[in-house]
Design goal:
By secondary structure, the chain is of the alpha/beta class. It has helices spanning 7-20, 27-32, 53-64, 83-91, 102-105, 110-125, 153-157, 207-216, 235-259; strands at 24-25, 42-49, 71-74, 95-100, 130-135, 162-163, 174-177, 221-226. The structure holds zinc ion.
Length: 263
């Protein structure tokens, strides 16, 4: 499905959401509201900026042109973190969050992970307002970055509203992720599972399936995670990208068999 994860298809997905009349919430907005304040139906758009930050800016523009605000979780590794680009995404009306990987950096030492987390959060806060965070799942390390948290009060201590996996109610909100370049849950989604996801939820493979799902579920509550680096402007570019990911998925699959984490 080489046409499926193109910028054009992403715009089609957004337009379907607008057509149906879904309000779009950032993670900050979602976590700021009490359960009774939330609109009956909504879409939370979440992005992990793992690599190719220029693609994130493309996504930010595609959304802003349609009056939609979303949330970009940005890694602070040198290959991804570009202060000017982060400022530009925020200036388009989007939320910036910290895509943390401090358990990986600290090799599983919780105390050292907090020291690292505080430092990198402060670095990102020099360029943007950061109220929420979200773990980065590196399939090649043995750690789960969420394991640094003992309880919700710890987010308060950092002046944070919460964590995108841990603080959202995924029994209430249907979660779909483009990991593995399909919206379907599966073995490739190592470390990309939430707790309490309804195992019986309706599946979507292609972006077109997800468009249909939005149209058929106008009273739904959705959280859609996408990685802009996995999408391309043209189908030809996507073919190159898919070859890169296929190589990566082979090693991911091997990891899954060995560790069988996060099922
Ligand atoms: Zn990530």
């Amino acid at each position: 499905m080489t046409n499926d994860f193109t910028y054009g298809m992403y715009a089609t997905l957004l337009e379907a959401g607008l057509d149906v009349g879904f309000p779009f919430l950032t993670v900050r907005e979602y976590l700021s509201m009490d359960a009774e304040e939330l609109p009956p139906a909504f879409i939370v758009l979440r992005h992990d900026v793992d690599r190719k930050p220029a693609n994130a800016l493309d996504f930010a523009r595609i959304e802003a042109e349609r009056g939609i605000a979303s949330t970009y979780y940005v890694r602070t590794v040198p290959t991804v973190f570009d202060p000017d680009l982060v400022r530009e995404i925020e200036s388009l009306g989007h939320e910036i969050g910290y895509h943390y990987e401090d358990m990986d950096r600290a090799d599983g030492d919780v105390e050292a992970a907090h020291v690292s987390f505080a430092r990198h959060l402060a670095r990102l806060r020099e360029v943007a307002t950061v109220d929420t965070v979200c773990m980065h799942g590196n399939p090649l390390t043995p750690h789960d970055n969420r394991d640094m948290w003992r309880d919700d009060d710890e987010f308060d201590e950092y002046g944070l509203l919460g964590e995108a996996y841990l603080s959202m109610d995924f029994e209430d909100v249907a979660y779909y992720s483009d990991t593995g370049r399909t919206w379907r849950d599966g073995a490739l989604k190592v470390k990309d599972h939430t707790f309490g996801v309804d195992g019986g939820k309706r599946q979507a493979s292609t972006t077109g399936d997800l468009v249909d799902l939005l149209r058929e579920t106008p009273d739904g509550r959705f959280c859609l995670l996408s990685h802009p680096d996995r999408w391309a402007d043209t189908p030809a570019e996507l073919v190159t990208e898919t070859a890169f990911d296929t190589a990566k998925n082979v090693s991911k699959y091997a990891m899954h068999v060995v560790t069988s984490r996060g099922g």
